[in-house]
Task: structure prediction
Amino acid sequence: MTLAELRTALAELDHLPGDTIVALSKDSEGNGFSPLYEVDPSMYHAETEWSGERYMTEAARLAQDDPDDYAVAPDDAVLAVFLWPTN
Result:
């Protein structure tokens, strides 16, 4: 899903109250759920069609006390929005 598709999906929910909980599935089978904890714009590097790795944006990496402690995103990594569950 792209951010544009997510925005469209969320726009269809604008009738819901603002305090409605957002929950994430723990896996694709729906074997558990957890409330959304954080929205994190970072970089995504696909390793396969189904999975990949998250990297900090370069600005976020350079803002760390010791940027060299954090991996630089590969050149073909793309900006992505990561949704982190509470648990």
